[in-house]
Design a protein that fits this description.
This protein has 19 helices and no strands. Helix 13 runs parallel beside helix 18. It folds into 3 domains: 190 residues, MFS general substrate transporter like domains (Growth Hormone, Chain: A); 52 residues; 234 residues, Growth Hormone, Chain: A (Up-down Bundle), CATH 1.20.1250. It is 76% helix and 0% strand. The protein is an all-alpha fold. GO terms for molecular function: transmembrane transporter activity. It is found in: Cell membrane. It holds the Pfam family MFS_1. InterPro entries: EmrB-like (IPR004638), MFS (IPR011701), MFS_dom (IPR020846), MFS_trans_sf (IPR036259), Sugar_transporter_CS (IPR005829).
């Protein structure tokens, strides 16, 4: 590239001998951010007992992180442009480590919720700068492909690593170490970043859309908070209706403001394109079901089937294996030959079928015959869907929009996780409470009735998740009309570049 040949200070030379060590640092930070969405899942039953959380509020350990992460991700990219990628990367690492230490030392549920939200804030700063540093560290197309392969593999396997590591730490140390573990990782990454990564100066003329952040995040928080309050108060309670009303007003105002903001947080032309909008919506709906599954299966395996935290973490591996096989061995091979929706629609139907199988679980179900087949189907379906979503959403975008488009895909993922966890947790706890109240006639049978009620609540919520998956299939089938590429492969999809 000409910039590299002329020695542009903003572009590290392709021959930099330390670039692969730089990749290790970037990948380490990315892994930390990705696995933190799942590492706490396995620890959640222990943390709930220790801090006295209610069933209705426990979901905030997950949603506080995903909501802050998803709601601020677009702003995080702009901050990286303003302050500089390396500086933002280091600030994100230090802040993430501090928030993790605060969460590990939590003395109350509120303190843990706040720490998890703070983790999400710094993750939103860290993730875009990591991606930008990767694109500027590797300028040779072949090397960049390898680097993004490593980056993508870590992003894809982060959930599995989170489940297993979370199980080991919870069982052999304490649930708090699921948060403390980020501190040494972040310290190593900070020292590595300061010595190995090149500084990418910021641009003083970059403007931040603060009103857009307030409106967008405020609307999402009101929506998720409304779902969580529906369990203790009821869906028709004035507080719940007011929260949903506020969410509609704030999100509608956010859309209006994005048409008038000097530098919009989310340029609306990015989501006006039919295929891209269909991909964003499909991703959000798919993750609504998946994050709900994570929450319920964690409690089902540990509380109902009495699995240890380590055994619970290992029990999720068929799901991750299904995602990897579906994305790398099926989608990657077929995407160059078939239209994206020919993978996305069957993928969501397959995932929904896996959910339907899970609705048959009981207090005495066998893992190998009733749980594992469902997890494999779910994983294959997700793998079939995720790759064409990312490829189609980022294909053909203008260079100046590639960064915000990639961030929007990730935002839809995190927002879907937030809504799914809150909504399905409310459905499950409400259904459980109703079941227990109507069946508890003999106090001597209380323990068994409570267990049956909990499982009944899970199955009702899983039916809802299965329906959401089918809705995702419908959205993909109707909205994603892109044709199969005539030439090339999915690797021709432009790599997201940092916004200039």
């Amino acid at each position: 590239m000409s910039a590299a040949r002329t020695g542009d200070a903003n572009t590290p030379p392709p021959s930099d001998p330390r670039r692969w060590w730089g990749l290790v640092v970037i990948a380490l930070a990315q892994l930390m951010v990705v696995l933190d969405a799942t590492i706490v899942q396995i620890a959640l039953p222990s943390a709930q007992r220790d801090l006295g959380m209610s069933d209705a509020n426990r979901q905030w350990v997950i949603t506080a992180y995903t909501l802050a992460f998803g709601g601020l991700l677009l702003l995080g990219g702009r901050i990286a442009d303003l302050v500089g990628r390396k500086r933002t990367f280091v600030i994100g690492l230090i802040g993430f480590a501090g928030a993790s230490a605060l969460g590990g030392a939590a003395l109350s549920s509120g303190m843990l919720f706040g720490a998890r939200a703070l983790q999400g804030v710094f993750a939103a700063v860290l993730a875009p700068s990591a991606l930008s540093l990767l694109t500027t560290t590797f300028t040779d197309p072949r090397e960049r492909g390898k680097a993004f392969g490593v980056y993508g593999a870590l992003a894809g396997s982060g959930s599995a690593i989170g489940f297993v590591v979370g199980g080991v730490l919870t069982e052999y140390l304490d649930w708090r170490w699921c948060l403390y573990v980020n501190v040494p990782i972040a310290v190593i990454a900070v020292f590595g970043a300061l010595t190995l990564l090149h500084d990418i100066p910021g641009h003083a003329d970059v403007r931040l859309d603060i009103p857009g952040v307030v409106l967008g995040c405020g609307g999402l928080v009101s929506l998720v908070y409304g779902f969580s309050e529906a369990q203790p108060h009821g869906w028709s309670d004035p507080l719940v209706l007011a929260l949903f009303g506020a969410a509609v007003v704030l999100l509608a105002t956010f859309v209006w403001w994005q048409t008038r903001a000097p530098v919009p947080l989310l340029p609306l032309h990015v989501i006006r394109e039919r295929n891209r909008a269909g991909c964003f919506l499909t991703m959000m709906l798919a993750v609504i079901g998946m994050f709900g599954l994570f929450l319920f299966m964690t409690y089902y395996l540990q509380v109902i089937l009495s699995y240890s935290p380590v055994k619970t973490g290992l029990a999720f591996l068929p799901l991750t294996a299904g995602i990897i096989v579906g994305s790398t061995q099926i989608s990657a091979r077929l995407l160059r030959r078939v239209a994206p929706r020919m993978l996305m629609v069957p993928g969501m139907v397959l995932a929904s079928a896996g959910m339907v199988i899970l609705t048959r679980i009981t207090v005495h179900s066998e893992y190998t015959t009733e749980v594992m087949p469902a997890l494999i189907l779910m994983g294959l379906g997700m793998g079939l869907t995720f790759m064409p979503v990312f490829s189609t959403a980022t294909a053909g975008v203008a260079p100046q929009d590639s960064g915000v488009t990639s961030a929007t895909v990730n935002t839809s993922q995190q927002v879907g996780g937030s809504i799914g966890t809150a909504l399905l947790n409310t459905v499950a706890t409400t259904s459980s409470t109703t079941f227990i109240a109507s069946h508890l006639k003999n106090p001597a049978q209380r323990a068994m009735i409570v267990k049956e009620g909990i499982v009944h609540g899970y199955t009702v919520a899983i039916w809802v998740a299965a329906g959401v998956m089918l809705l995702a299939a419908l959205v993909a089938g109707l909205m994603v009309t892109a044709k199969a590429p005539r030439h090339g492969t999915p690797s021709d999809t432009p790599v997201p570049e940092p916004a200039s």
